[in-house]
Specification:
The chain has helices at 16-26, 56-68, 102-112, 149-163, and strands at 2-11, 30-39, 42-51, 73-78, 89-97, 116-126, 133-142, 165-170. With 171 residues, it is an alpha+beta fold. It folds into two domains: 2-78, ACT domain (Alpha-Beta Plaits); 89-170, ACT domain (Alpha-Beta Plaits, 2-Layer Sandwich). The strands form two sheets. The protein has a four-stranded antiparallel β-sheet, covered by helices on one side. It has a four-stranded antiparallel β-sheet with strand order 6-7-5-8, with helices on one face. Helix 3 (102-112) runs antiparallel to helix 4 (149-163). The longest helix has 15 residues, at 149-163. The chain is flat and about 55 Å long.
Amino acid sequence: MVSFVLTVLGDDRPGLVDSLSGVVTAHGGNWERSQMARLGGKFAGVVQVSVPSASATELQAALAALGDEGLLQVRVDLAGAAPVATGTRFVLSLVGTDRPGLVHSVSSALAEIGASIEELDTATSDAPMSGGPLFEATAAVVLPEGVSIESVRDTLEALADHLMVDIDLVS
């Protein structure tokens, strides 16, 4: 078996997941994990699939054909065997008034201590009371060995005060 990570992008319309999953299935592949969303009128996603080694080349050609047909642009990368992080895991939640630089400020603070962001989901919406833009983020984070969640909490609480957002950490 060969494992691929597919990055997909196309104009949003019904049937895109069906087209993509149909190609994977037709080549004996298995859809293992995905994250997909409608973003700015586009359909975007990341999918991990596995396929029998004998079908790998044909799958790649069929996925490329989706782009040629104007359905989806699909980038195919061989999945790697990245080392599994073994430190403390927590979920970070952030809520505050939307403005440029929020993700960068928090990700920089986490990068400085060597933390790894394994998943990140963000969204903006209208705030219920003010109607202004509200930014929400949820991140699954893994700390390096020797770094405590308490020290991260102190760092991020100071940052939250500076950014005027609420940040919560849950082990």
